[in-house]
Amino acid sequence: MDSAALLNRVDELPRLPKAISELLDAVNDDNATVKSIATKVAHDPLISARVLRLANCAHYGRSREVGTIDEAVVRLGMQTLRTLVLASAVIGAVPKCEGIDLALFWGQTFEIALYSQEMAKRCGAMPEEAFTCGILHRIGDLLIAAVSPEDAAKIAEAVAQGKDKHEFERELLGYDSPDIGALLAKNWKFTTALVEGILYQDHPKDSDPFSKLAALLCLSYKVLDEWDTIEDDEKTSWLSQLATKKGLRMEMGGLRTKLTELRGSGFEIGRALA
């Protein structure tokens, strides 16, 4: 990676607005009450709208529709609310990009985040951190498109021609999308483990120490791309072998059923948020 080329773009990275930072601090406060969180969320109309849409979407929703932030906070629970406030903050902080279908982009992002979260429970990783890493892992793609749409178009064309995306990005820009995504996560003061997860998402075994978060991202993409091509009675064996290849020791009991149930949930969430 050309460090100088990457560092020259630091000032172009988006900053989290102060109000969003304060809201994230509030939802990450273990002593915060449901009422105090609901009040904070209600102060941001865009995040309020997203939280309500999410609380009512099929993945999180129930038979009765909720109409207030207080009800949404109770339905979602604190852990889910933390991750969704973060996701809303990230979506709001990154500018809209020409040529990118944001509903599809965030749908795929959430699909990967949900798979990573579920599999994290079975391999000793922190599920919420895995979800957050999933939410942030493709942010570099949006930043490249926002800063240089011409380069983003060249990258898309190269990928369509069968070229390796990150290799082409490095040739063109001096860095690739995980590099700039990891830099953004570091600037936003996320954990070192999360930054490393983004940075090594395509080659987890290169990380030292080994990054479970990166391996989970890599494995989640296999699930996204190939799950429906594998026979049902072979899915558990297929997934177990892949997990081992990625360096993960994973408990497989019930995982096939859970991943099958999750299929499509991320795309629904993406449509609700975008």
Helix % is 55-70%
Strand content: under 5%
Number of helices, where a helix is a run of at least 4 consecutive DSSP H or I residues:
16
Give the termini separation: 32 Å
Mean pLDDT figure: 85
List low-pLDDT spans. Answer: none
Which structural category do the helix and sheet elements fall into?
mainly alpha
Radius of gyration: 19 Å
Number of strands: 0
Shape annotation? globular
Any overview of this molecule?
This is HDOD domain-containing protein. By secondary structure, the protein is mostly helical. 66% of the residues lie in helices and 0% in strands. It is built from 16 helices and no strands. The longest helix is centred in the first third of the chain and has 25 residues, at 69-93.
